[in-house]
Amino acid sequence: MSTPATTIFSPALAARFDKLVTLYPVRRSALVPMLLYSQDEVGYISDAVVEEIAVRIGITPLDVRNVLSYYSMLRTKPVGKYNVQVCTNISCMLKDGYGILDHCKQRLGIGHKEVTPDGLFSLEEVECIGACCWAPAVQINYDFYDDLTPEKMDKVLEDYRAGRGKETL
Amino acid sequence: MADVTFTVDGKKLTAPAGTLLIDACRKAGIEIPAFCYYPGLSLQAACRMCVVRLEKVPKLQTACTTPVAEGMVVTTESDEIKQSRKAILELLLGNHPLDCPVCDAGGECELQDMTFKYGAAESKYVEIKQHREEQQWSPVVFFDRPRCILCYRCVRVCGEGMDVWALGVQNRGVSSVISPNGEDHLDCEECGMCIDICPVGALTSGTYRYKTRPWEMNHVATVCTHCGDGCKTTLGVRSVDDGSEIIRGDNRDKSGMNGDFLCIKGRYAFDFTTREDRITKPLVRQPNGQLAEVSWEQALEHAGMKLREIRDTRGGSAIGVIGSTRTTNEEAYLLQKFARTVLNTNNIDHHRTADYASFAAALQGKAGRTASLRDFLTAPAILLLGNDATEQHPALAWNIRSNVRQNRARLYVANHADIKLHRQAKSFLQIPQDGYAALVQYLAGNEAGFDGTEISAAFREALRKEESLVIAFGSEFRGRDIQSLVDFGLGLPNVKFAALGDYANSRGAADMGLMPDLLPGYVPLAAAKHFGEEYPSLPSAPGLDMLQMFDAAEAGNLGALYVVGSNPVERYGIDPTALKNTFLIVQDMFMTETAAVADVIFPAANLYEKSGTVTNTYGDLQLAKKAADKAGVRTDFELIVRLADKMGADPKKLVPFGRGVRADMGQTRGAQSGEADRHAVWLAANNLEPKLSPFDPFAVFDEIQRLVPSYNVSRFELLGGQDKQTRSDLVQIELDPARRDLVLPANDTLFTSGTLGRYSRMLHSVMESRTTKPAETAAD
C-alpha cells in the first residue's frame, strides 16, 4: 500500500494512479480502472504491471490476477498495433457479423486472438460493442466502423495498413 | 443483542437478533445443508444449498446470509426447497467426476452426502465432462480441478483464517478455477487448512491421498507432539504389519483449544513414526566398540547392572539424568523420582526453552492469573512481547487472528523483529533485541533506559486503558524480567499471563521437576517439605544442571548418564569425546548424535504411541491417548520401571499400582465392558481405576495429583478429553536469586521441530520445495 520508488508507467500515468487510489473508500476499488489505463499505456497487462498495481493498492498479485482473469477485455499478451475487434453478438450476427469475422481472418491470415507476423494487426471476436443500430460493427482500438460489408472492411484494413487509419490508442 | 422469536418448521425458536438463520437453526437441531457457509469465515452465499422459504418473501432465501428477525416464519424443508437443492446438485454434478470409489473424500464427502439425501441421481445434462489433469501445488497440496464445487472455503480460510492469501479464484463463470499464488504452485505456510476444509475431494493431502478409505481408519483424539501449544489432533490410524500406522492428522471435530486448526507439523509431520531407520531393537556397545542388537533382557540387565555398580561404588552424584520435553508428565515425574530415589542423585535436567520456574515464582498465590490458550480466542485485548507466534506458536497465532477478526480484539505487539502478527496489531512497537526489560520498565512508568517516542507513548497509553488484558511473552523474558513483567501486569486490572516455551511438554518437564534444584511442583530441594517423607532416600546434595553434567563428564567425574528422549550432544554442541568415560544410556527413536555415542540404546515409543497427560506452555493439562503402535519399541515409562527393577528397586515404591483402590477391569458392567473409552469414563465417574500394572501411567498421575497441588484438576473432565488449566497460584516457591535459568530457545520455525523434525520426510520435502523450483505440473 504505497507508491513504489520506481515505476514502469509514464510520469503522467503514475501521478494519475497516485490520485486514483485516494478517490475511493477502499483502495482496491481503483483496481479495474488502473488495469484499463495500464493496458492502454503498456498495451497489455504484463507481470510487471500486475506487480506494481498490487504494490500500489496493497493487495497480493494473486488478487490482481483474480480480477484480471475475470474480464475478457483485459489481456495478458501484446496485441497488434491495430486490434480489430469484430462483434458477433445477436444484431451483428443477424447482419452477417460472422461473415465479417471470416473475411478478416482470411484477409489478415490470422485467427481469433492472434497477431499478424508484422505486428500490425490482431484479431478478436468480441461480445456486443453497443453499435447494434449499425450492425455489423467492428471496433479497431477505440474507433468504430459500422454498417460493414466485406468490401468496406477491406477498405478500412487497407487504410490502416497504408497508415491512413485513425491513430487513437 | 436482544432476543427475537421466530418460527422454523412450526417450531418456536429464540435467538439473539443478528444471529444468522442457519446458525440459529443448527443450534436448535434443524440442519440446513450448505457447502460454502463455514462458521467463523466471511459469508459467501455461493452454493445456494441453504435456501429456505421465508413467509412473505417472493423467492427462496439463503439461510446463511439471513439474520433472524422478530416474527419471521421459515420453512426449511418442503417439496419446493427439495427441488431447488436437487437442481443445484444437478448443476454441481454436471462436471463433477464420479470417481467417488477412488476419491479420498469418498465416505466423508459433503457432496456425496447431499446427493444421497436429495437424490440427484438422474441428470438432464448429456454434455461430455471436461476433464483436467490433477495439479500438485506443493509437496502436501494437490488440486483436482473437476472435483471442485467452487465453495470458496479454501480461499477464505487461507486468507481470513491464516492471513496468507495464497488462494484465489480466476476466470469467470464455468471456467472459474481456484488458483494458487505461485501460478502453478503454492507459496504459503503449508498448513493444509484448505485441504481440511474442502467439502469434497478437490484439495487432497500429500500424506493421505490414495492411501486409505476413511472408514478403514480408527480415529484417536490425542495431543500433537511438536510445539508447546498442545493442539488437539485426531489421528487416523490403520493396522499394518508391525503395529498401527498414522495416516492422517486433523481436528475436524474442533474438540480442542485449537478449534479445527492444525499447522503443517500437526497435520503432516507424524511420518517419523514409520521411518525405516527407526530403532526397534535394543543396542549394546560391544567390547569391539560396535553397537550390536541384543535381547531386551540382556540390554536391561546390562544397563541396570552398570547403573547399580556406579551408584554403589561412586555414589549417586556420579550419575546424571537428562529428561525430555516430549514425554508425558507421568514419564517426566517418574524419571525424576527414579533419579532421586533409585539413582540417589539430583543431577537431573532437561532442555529448557522457557523460564517456567521464575514464572511460577512470580505468580504464586495469585489465583486466576494464568492464561489458557483458549483465552487468546476471547480476550478483548492481547499483549504479545517477543516471540514470533506465527512460526513458533501457530495455534496461538491462529487464535489471536481469529479473535481480532471475529471479536475485534485489540492486539499490541512489541518485538525486535517485524513479525507477521504486526498485520493484526492495533499497535506495534519495534524495540532493540535486548530492550525487553527496559520496555517493561517503560510500560510501568520508569522512563530510564528506554528511548520513548510518540509511538511508544501511545502504545503505553492504550495499554493502560485496557480493562482486561492477556499478556504472552517469549523466552526473551527470564528470571527477574518475568518478575517485573508480572509486577507491571498486576498493576493493571484483570491481567492474565502466558509464558511461551517450545515443545509439547516443555512445561510439563519443568512442572514435574526435571531440574536439579527443583522437585515436582517447583518445590525447592533445599526445603523439600512433603517430598522428604515421600522420597525417603532423597539426597540433599544439590544436583548438577545440564552444563555442569557435561563439565563433570569431561573431567571424568560422571560415571553414567541416562538420556531419555533428548539430543543434548547436538543441541548443546557437546564434543562427543567428553562422554568417553561415561556409561551412556539413551532412550530414543533414532540414531541421534547422542545415541551414536551411547553404550546402551533402548528403542522408545513417541507421544503418539503412549497414553498419559501433557501440559502445554500455557499450563493446560490434556490427555494424550495411544494412537499408533510400532513393534519393538517400548514407552519411556515402561523402560524406566524395568530399569529400576533391574537395579533391584521395588517397582511398587516407584509406581503406586495396586494399592488404595479396588480394580475393575469391566467385569461389573457386562455388555459394555468391551468399549475402552466408555470404560475409562465409567471408571472415573466411580472413582475407580484398573491399576493392576506397574506400567500404568495413571497410577503415577494419582501420585502427581496428590503431591503437586497445581495438577489437582478434575480427572473426570480430563478423561473426557477436555483441557484443564493447572493452578500456578498453588505453587509455593522462593527462588534463589542467583539461580541460572539456562534457557536455550529452540527457535523452531513452522517447518522445523528440533531433532524430531529432522526425521520427518514431509517437513524436509516442504523445506526443499521452497528453495528449489517446483516440479512440472500439468498444463491447464
From TrEMBL, chain A:
It comes from the Bacteria. Keywords: 2Fe-2S, Iron, Iron-sulfur, Metal-binding. GO terms for molecular function: 2 iron, 2 sulfur cluster binding; metal ion binding; NADH dehydrogenase activity. Its cofactor is [2Fe-2S] cluster. CDD domains: TRX_Fd_NuoE. [2Fe-2S] cluster binds at residues 87, 92, 128, 132. Binds 1 [2Fe-2S] cluster. Belongs to the complex I 24 kDa subunit family. NCBIfam families: nuoE_fam. This is NADH dehydrogenase subunit E. It comes from Acidipila rosea.
TrEMBL record, chain B:
One of its GO terms (molecular function) is metal ion binding. GO terms for biological process: ATP synthesis coupled electron transport. It holds the Pfam family Molybdopterin. Residues 139-168, 178-208 form the 4Fe-4S ferredoxin-type domain. InterPro entries: 2Fe-2S_ferredoxin-like_sf, 2Fe-2S_ferredoxin-type, 4Fe4S_Fe-S-bd, 4Fe4S_Fe_S_CS, Mopterin_OxRdtase, Mopterin_OxRdtase_4Fe-4S_dom, NADH_UbQ_OxRdtase_75kDa_su_CS, NADH_UbQ_OxRdtase_ferredoxin. Residues 217-277 form the 4Fe-4S Mo/W bis-MGD-type domain. SMART domains: Molybdop_Fe4S4, NADH-G_4Fe-4S_3. Residues 80-119 form the 4Fe-4S His(Cys)3-ligated-type domain. It catalyses: a quinone + NADH + 5 H(+)(in) = a quinol + NAD(+) + 4 H(+)(out). One of its GO terms (cellular component) is membrane. Gene3D superfamilies: 3.10.20.740, 3.30.70.20, 3.40.50.740, ADC-like domains, Dimethylsulfoxide Reductase, domain 2. Residues 2-80 form the 2Fe-2S ferredoxin-type domain. Its cofactor is [4Fe-4S] cluster; [2Fe-2S] cluster. Keywords: 2Fe-2S, 4Fe-4S, Iron, Iron-sulfur, Metal-binding, NAD, Quinone, Repeat, Translocase. It comes from the Bacteria. NCBIfam families: NuoG. Belongs to the complex I 75 kDa subunit family. This is NADH-quinone oxidoreductase chain G. It comes from Acidipila rosea. The lineage of its organism: Bacteria, Pseudomonadati, Acidobacteriota, Terriglobia, Terriglobales.
